[in-house]
Amino acid sequence: MRLPFLRCLSIVFVPVWTAVQASEGYSGYRIDQHGDPQSAVYETENTPNATLLGPPDVYLDAHVSVDLISIVVEDITAKVNLDAKVLGLLKFSAGVDVSIDRVKLTIDDVRAKVLLEVRLGNVAAMVDDVLSSVDLNPILATVGKGVGNIVGNSTNAISKAKLFSDREL
């Protein structure tokens, strides 16, 4: 009698345990890692990460390298005033008054490397899904306005409360 019970338990328990182990704590999406060990590709069931072909929508590649920038300014004074008039055709006025007293700036060894690639295909798909949902269910638009008003009123109340508490300090 005990053997059939254990067999049934193992039939149910082993697939469940395998599924729990395979999920690694994530439900409904996968994290794939490739290339740079600091990068990750997130993929959900509804927004799969397609092989990204073609140029990205936004691309930024910045390199900065500074060994030393030094500026020492003790006292600079500049006063310029210009006023020119030619008949009634031209009137030009300019004025500058600059005064600097003791500035010292030193930047030694700065290194930076930035690479940003943005592809907005999934964002466009999500916006399309939301607009389709609102199109099929117009009541969602009014619900969204109500939620927006609640959030707006809450943030205004929090801002006013913070302003009031700052005044008391």
Strand adjacency order, main sheet: 1-2
Average pLDDT value? 71
Count of DSSP E strands? 6
General shape: extended
Described by strand count, sense and barrel closure, the largest sheet is: 2 strands, antiparallel
Using only C-alpha atoms, the radius of gyration works out to 32 Å
Short description:
Residues 1-22 form the signal peptide. 40% of the residues lie in helices and 37% in strands. The protein has 169 residues and is α+β, with helices and mostly antiparallel strands.
Give your account of this protein's structure.
Keywords: Signal. The protein is extended, with a radius of gyration of 32 Å. The chain has a two-stranded antiparallel ribbon with strand order 1-2. By secondary structure, it is α+β, with helices and mostly antiparallel strands. The protein has three helices and six strands; from the N terminus they run αββββββαα.
How are the elements arranged and paired?
Elements: H1 2-23, E1 29-32, E2 41-44, E3 58-66, E4 69-86, E5 90-107, E6 110-118, H2 121-136, H3 139-168
Task: Give keywords.
6 strands; 169 residues; extended; alpha+beta; signal; 37% strand; two-stranded antiparallel ribbon
